[in-house]
Amino acid sequence: MTLTPVALALISTGAGLVGAVIGTAGTLISASLTQRATRNRESDFKVWERRADAIEEAHRKMLALANARDLAWARRALPTGLDPADLDPGHQDEQSRLVATKLSLYTTPDLVRAHRKSNDEFLKSLLAILGVQLALSETGAESDRARRERRLNEAVAEATSAVEKSKAADERLEAALREAAAIATPRRRRR
Prior knowledge:
This protein is about 80% helix and about 0% strand. By secondary structure, it is mainly alpha-helical.
């Protein structure tokens, strides 16, 4: 069988078309894979950013509460202007609620528990310091002096214990925050 010039032209045109289709399909598949990889990287980075932001906010809040607790303990009195609602464990201001929500969404349950425990121990320490403040402000007859001193000593012992427990809870929270930050750090991957 001999190939005519027309048959050769049709074969070369068909080969060209097949090559173009294969090239176009390869380009489309490559573009699709590149877009998916980029989208996945961006998504991973956004989650990492949110996780890091939650960890940072929790640490900043913990330090602020620790400073307030330490100042109150050093003065043996709660800071002036402290809202009584702040001492209610069921009460949460908007910032605390936001930090707790971010931790719940983007970090581990262990970190959420450590954060909750730190806040609970902080409130207990403030209540104990309030007990010392009230014992110091007690007045009465001179004959009640021994009872007032005993009550003050008990309040100071309770507050000392509560402050130490609060500091220990803060240390556990800080360790959990560091661990979560190490896990949250994005890794460069080759795909």
